[in-house]
Design a protein that fits this description.
This protein has 12 helices and 4 strands, in the order αββαββαααααααααα. By secondary structure, the protein is mainly α. A hairpin with a 2-residue loop joins β3 and β4. The radius of gyration is 28 Å and the shape is elongated.
Length: 282
Protein backbone atom coordinates (compact mmCIF):
# COMPACT_ATOMS: atom_id res chain seq x y z
CA UNK A 1 0.00 0.00 0.00
CA UNK A 2 1.50 3.32 -1.07
CA UNK A 3 1.29 6.68 0.62
CA UNK A 4 -0.97 9.33 -0.84
CA UNK A 5 -0.04 12.93 -1.60
CA UNK A 6 -1.64 15.93 -3.22
CA UNK A 7 -0.07 16.28 -6.66
CA UNK A 8 0.97 19.93 -6.36
CA UNK A 9 3.72 21.29 -8.62
CA UNK A 10 6.12 23.24 -6.40
CA UNK A 11 8.73 25.89 -7.03
CA UNK A 12 12.16 24.27 -7.01
CA UNK A 13 14.18 27.45 -6.40
CA UNK A 14 14.07 29.15 -3.02
CA UNK A 15 13.22 32.84 -3.04
CA UNK A 16 16.13 33.85 -0.82
CA UNK A 17 18.29 34.53 -3.87
CA UNK A 18 15.85 37.07 -5.29
CA UNK A 19 16.51 40.76 -4.92
CA UNK A 20 13.91 42.91 -3.17
CA UNK A 21 13.24 44.59 -6.52
CA UNK A 22 12.48 41.21 -8.07
CA UNK A 23 10.09 40.35 -5.27
CA UNK A 24 8.29 43.65 -5.87
CA UNK A 25 7.99 42.83 -9.56
CA UNK A 26 6.14 39.62 -8.79
CA UNK A 27 3.65 41.40 -6.55
CA UNK A 28 1.60 42.45 -9.58
CA UNK A 29 -1.51 43.23 -7.58
CA UNK A 30 -1.94 46.41 -5.55
CA UNK A 31 -4.59 48.35 -3.67
CA UNK A 32 -2.76 51.65 -3.25
CA UNK A 33 0.47 53.09 -4.65
CA UNK A 34 2.18 52.27 -1.34
CA UNK A 35 2.01 48.59 -2.40
CA UNK A 36 4.16 49.31 -5.46
CA UNK A 37 7.91 49.64 -5.90
CA UNK A 38 9.56 53.05 -5.93
CA UNK A 39 8.61 55.06 -9.02
CA UNK A 40 5.46 53.06 -9.69
CA UNK A 41 1.84 53.85 -8.90
CA UNK A 42 -1.27 51.69 -8.50
CA UNK A 43 -3.64 51.87 -11.50
CA UNK A 44 -6.60 49.47 -11.87
CA UNK A 45 -5.05 47.10 -9.36
CA UNK A 46 -1.66 46.95 -11.14
CA UNK A 47 1.66 48.68 -10.39
CA UNK A 48 2.54 50.86 -13.41
CA UNK A 49 4.98 53.58 -14.39
CA UNK A 50 3.33 56.73 -13.11
CA UNK A 51 5.26 59.27 -15.16
CA UNK A 52 2.28 59.98 -17.35
CA UNK A 53 0.02 60.98 -14.47
CA UNK A 54 0.05 64.34 -12.76
CA UNK A 55 2.48 65.88 -15.26
CA UNK A 56 6.21 65.41 -15.63
CA UNK A 57 8.09 67.18 -12.88
CA UNK A 58 5.00 67.48 -10.71
CA UNK A 59 3.71 70.73 -12.24
CA UNK A 60 0.17 71.45 -13.39
CA UNK A 61 -0.30 71.03 -17.14
CA UNK A 62 -2.78 73.07 -19.13
CA UNK A 63 -4.56 71.63 -22.17
CA UNK A 64 -1.58 72.40 -24.39
CA UNK A 65 0.90 70.54 -22.21
CA UNK A 66 2.43 73.72 -20.72
CA UNK A 67 3.56 73.52 -17.12
CA UNK A 68 1.80 76.51 -15.55
CA UNK A 69 2.98 75.98 -11.99
CA UNK A 70 6.39 77.50 -12.76
CA UNK A 71 5.00 80.78 -14.13
CA UNK A 72 5.43 83.67 -11.65
CA UNK A 73 2.82 86.33 -10.95
CA UNK A 74 5.03 88.89 -12.70
CA UNK A 75 5.23 86.76 -15.82
CA UNK A 76 1.51 86.18 -15.82
CA UNK A 77 0.91 89.93 -15.68
CA UNK A 78 3.39 90.81 -18.44
CA UNK A 79 1.58 92.17 -21.47
CA UNK A 80 -1.66 91.12 -19.95
CA UNK A 81 -2.92 94.47 -18.66
CA UNK A 82 -2.75 93.32 -15.07
CA UNK A 83 -4.84 90.21 -15.65
CA UNK A 84 -4.01 86.74 -14.37
CA UNK A 85 -4.15 85.19 -17.84
CA UNK A 86 -1.24 82.85 -18.57
CA UNK A 87 0.51 84.02 -21.74
CA UNK A 88 1.15 81.64 -24.59
CA UNK A 89 4.63 80.25 -24.06
CA UNK A 90 6.77 78.47 -26.61
CA UNK A 91 8.73 76.11 -24.41
CA UNK A 92 10.06 74.11 -27.34
CA UNK A 93 9.05 70.92 -25.57
CA UNK A 94 7.18 67.77 -26.50
CA UNK A 95 3.41 67.64 -26.94
CA UNK A 96 1.95 64.33 -25.73
CA UNK A 97 -0.19 62.56 -28.30
CA UNK A 98 -2.13 59.34 -27.85
CA UNK A 99 -4.69 59.48 -30.67
CA UNK A 100 -6.67 56.24 -30.50
CA UNK A 101 -4.12 54.56 -28.23
CA UNK A 102 -5.38 53.53 -24.81
CA UNK A 103 -2.02 52.41 -23.47
CA UNK A 104 1.68 52.75 -24.09
CA UNK A 105 3.95 55.77 -24.53
CA UNK A 106 2.44 59.16 -25.35
CA UNK A 107 5.47 60.17 -27.40
CA UNK A 108 6.94 62.28 -24.62
CA UNK A 109 7.90 59.63 -22.12
CA UNK A 110 4.50 59.63 -20.45
CA UNK A 111 1.69 57.09 -20.64
CA UNK A 112 -1.57 56.86 -22.58
CA UNK A 113 -2.93 54.48 -19.96
CA UNK A 114 -2.35 51.16 -18.24
CA UNK A 115 -3.73 47.75 -19.14
CA UNK A 116 -5.58 45.50 -16.74
CA UNK A 117 -3.88 42.61 -14.98
CA UNK A 118 -3.09 39.83 -17.45
CA UNK A 119 -3.00 42.14 -20.46
CA UNK A 120 -0.14 43.71 -22.39
CA UNK A 121 -0.04 46.80 -24.58
CA UNK A 122 0.25 45.98 -28.30
CA UNK A 123 0.28 48.90 -30.76
CA UNK A 124 -1.50 51.14 -28.29
CA UNK A 125 -4.24 48.64 -27.44
CA UNK A 126 -4.58 46.31 -24.45
CA UNK A 127 -4.53 42.63 -25.37
CA UNK A 128 -4.57 39.50 -23.25
CA UNK A 129 -0.98 38.42 -22.67
CA UNK A 130 0.06 35.20 -24.35
CA UNK A 131 -3.13 34.80 -26.39
CA UNK A 132 -5.45 32.62 -24.34
CA UNK A 133 -2.81 32.63 -21.59
CA UNK A 134 -1.40 29.80 -19.50
CA UNK A 135 -2.60 28.35 -16.21
CA UNK A 136 -1.08 29.04 -12.80
CA UNK A 137 0.40 25.53 -12.61
CA UNK A 138 1.93 26.10 -16.07
CA UNK A 139 3.51 29.31 -14.76
CA UNK A 140 5.11 27.30 -11.93
CA UNK A 141 6.45 24.82 -14.48
CA UNK A 142 7.80 27.68 -16.58
CA UNK A 143 9.49 29.28 -13.57
CA UNK A 144 11.04 25.95 -12.63
CA UNK A 145 12.60 25.81 -16.10
CA UNK A 146 14.24 29.21 -15.59
CA UNK A 147 17.91 29.30 -14.67
CA UNK A 148 17.73 29.98 -10.94
CA UNK A 149 16.33 33.34 -9.90
CA UNK A 150 16.32 34.84 -13.40
CA UNK A 151 14.04 37.85 -12.90
CA UNK A 152 13.42 38.39 -16.62
CA UNK A 153 12.55 34.73 -17.16
CA UNK A 154 10.22 34.64 -14.14
CA UNK A 155 8.46 37.81 -15.29
CA UNK A 156 8.01 36.42 -18.82
CA UNK A 157 6.46 33.25 -17.36
CA UNK A 158 4.03 35.30 -15.26
CA UNK A 159 3.09 37.60 -18.12
CA UNK A 160 2.05 34.61 -20.25
CA UNK A 161 -0.63 33.66 -17.73
CA UNK A 162 -4.32 34.43 -17.83
CA UNK A 163 -5.56 37.17 -15.48
CA UNK A 164 -6.73 34.48 -13.03
CA UNK A 165 -3.41 32.64 -13.28
CA UNK A 166 -1.47 35.86 -12.62
CA UNK A 167 -3.63 36.59 -9.58
CA UNK A 168 -3.14 33.07 -8.23
CA UNK A 169 0.64 32.98 -8.79
CA UNK A 170 0.93 36.39 -7.13
CA UNK A 171 -0.78 34.91 -4.06
CA UNK A 172 1.63 31.94 -4.10
CA UNK A 173 4.75 34.11 -4.46
CA UNK A 174 3.60 36.56 -1.80
CA UNK A 175 2.95 33.69 0.62
CA UNK A 176 6.33 32.10 -0.14
CA UNK A 177 8.15 35.40 0.24
CA UNK A 178 6.47 35.98 3.62
CA UNK A 179 6.87 32.47 5.04
CA UNK A 180 9.74 30.79 3.22
CA UNK A 181 11.90 33.64 1.90
CA UNK A 182 14.83 32.91 4.23
CA UNK A 183 14.73 29.12 4.50
CA UNK A 184 17.60 27.02 3.08
CA UNK A 185 17.07 25.39 -0.31
CA UNK A 186 16.90 21.92 1.28
CA UNK A 187 13.89 22.97 3.39
CA UNK A 188 12.14 25.12 0.79
CA UNK A 189 9.73 22.57 -0.70
CA UNK A 190 8.59 21.36 2.73
CA UNK A 191 8.05 24.97 3.74
CA UNK A 192 5.83 25.51 0.70
CA UNK A 193 3.61 22.57 1.62
CA UNK A 194 3.42 23.55 5.30
CA UNK A 195 2.75 27.28 4.89
CA UNK A 196 1.27 27.88 1.44
CA UNK A 197 -0.74 24.74 0.78
CA UNK A 198 -4.00 26.58 0.22
CA UNK A 199 -2.46 29.00 -2.27
CA UNK A 200 -0.79 26.11 -4.11
CA UNK A 201 -4.07 24.19 -4.24
CA UNK A 202 -5.81 27.18 -5.80
CA UNK A 203 -2.94 27.69 -8.25
CA UNK A 204 -2.97 24.06 -9.33
CA UNK A 205 -6.74 23.77 -9.62
CA UNK A 206 -7.10 21.16 -6.87
CA UNK A 207 -10.77 20.56 -6.21
CA UNK A 208 -12.19 21.35 -2.79
CA UNK A 209 -15.44 19.74 -1.67
CA UNK A 210 -17.57 19.65 1.46
CA UNK A 211 -16.89 16.17 2.92
CA UNK A 212 -15.35 15.90 6.37
CA UNK A 213 -12.21 13.92 7.15
CA UNK A 214 -14.04 10.76 8.23
CA UNK A 215 -15.85 10.58 4.89
CA UNK A 216 -12.64 11.20 2.93
CA UNK A 217 -10.70 8.61 4.95
CA UNK A 218 -13.44 6.00 4.55
CA UNK A 219 -13.39 6.61 0.80
CA UNK A 220 -9.58 6.33 0.70
CA UNK A 221 -9.59 2.99 2.50
CA UNK A 222 -11.65 1.47 -0.31
CA UNK A 223 -9.40 2.78 -3.10
CA UNK A 224 -7.10 0.51 -5.14
CA UNK A 225 -4.89 3.28 -6.60
CA UNK A 226 -3.83 6.95 -6.49
CA UNK A 227 -6.41 7.99 -9.10
CA UNK A 228 -9.22 6.78 -6.89
CA UNK A 229 -7.53 8.37 -3.89
CA UNK A 230 -7.32 11.73 -5.64
CA UNK A 231 -11.05 11.59 -6.38
CA UNK A 232 -11.79 10.91 -2.70
CA UNK A 233 -9.55 13.77 -1.62
CA UNK A 234 -11.22 16.20 -4.01
CA UNK A 235 -14.52 15.69 -2.18
CA UNK A 236 -13.16 16.97 1.13
CA UNK A 237 -12.68 20.43 2.58
CA UNK A 238 -9.10 21.68 2.72
CA UNK A 239 -8.80 20.76 6.42
CA UNK A 240 -10.39 17.36 5.75
CA UNK A 241 -7.99 16.64 2.90
CA UNK A 242 -4.92 17.32 5.04
CA UNK A 243 -6.19 15.37 8.04
CA UNK A 244 -7.35 12.37 6.00
CA UNK A 245 -4.05 12.10 4.12
CA UNK A 246 -2.10 12.34 7.39
CA UNK A 247 -4.21 9.58 9.01
CA UNK A 248 -4.08 7.34 5.95
CA UNK A 249 -0.30 7.70 5.54
CA UNK A 250 0.23 7.02 9.24
CA UNK A 251 -1.68 3.78 8.76
CA UNK A 252 0.52 2.84 5.81
CA UNK A 253 3.59 3.31 8.02
CA UNK A 254 2.28 1.45 11.06
CA UNK A 255 -0.29 -1.18 10.02
CA UNK A 256 0.11 -4.36 7.98
CA UNK A 257 -1.19 -4.42 4.43
CA UNK A 258 -3.36 -7.22 3.06
CA UNK A 259 -5.57 -7.58 6.14
CA UNK A 260 -9.36 -7.11 6.18
CA UNK A 261 -10.39 -3.49 5.93
CA UNK A 262 -12.02 -3.43 9.36
CA UNK A 263 -8.85 -4.81 10.98
CA UNK A 264 -6.67 -2.28 9.16
CA UNK A 265 -8.86 0.64 10.23
CA UNK A 266 -8.82 -0.62 13.85
CA UNK A 267 -5.03 -0.75 13.72
CA UNK A 268 -4.86 2.77 12.30
CA UNK A 269 -7.10 4.10 15.06
CA UNK A 270 -4.88 2.52 17.69
CA UNK A 271 -1.48 3.31 16.18
CA UNK A 272 -2.31 6.83 14.98
CA UNK A 273 -4.32 8.27 17.85
CA UNK A 274 -3.13 11.85 17.29
CA UNK A 275 -3.98 11.78 13.59
CA UNK A 276 -7.31 10.05 14.29
CA UNK A 277 -8.30 12.76 16.77
CA UNK A 278 -7.41 15.47 14.25
CA UNK A 279 -9.48 13.68 11.60
CA UNK A 280 -12.48 13.48 13.91
CA UNK A 281 -12.24 17.25 14.40
CA UNK A 282 -12.20 18.03 10.69
Amino acid sequence: MKKLALALPLLVVALAGCSSDAADAFNVLCRTSSDCASGLSCSNGVCVDGRGTGGRGGGTLDAGGVDTSAVSDAESDAGGGGTDTIPSLDIGGCTPSCGTATCGDDGCGGSCGACSLGQSCVSGQCETAGGAGTSCSDIIGCINDCAGNDDACWTACINDGTPTAQRDIAAVLTCLDTNCGDVPQAEFQACQQDNCGEELRTCNGVMVGSDDCTAVFTCLVGCPDQTCGDACIDEGTIAAQDAAIALYNCGVDNCADGVPVADWVACVRAACATEATACDSN
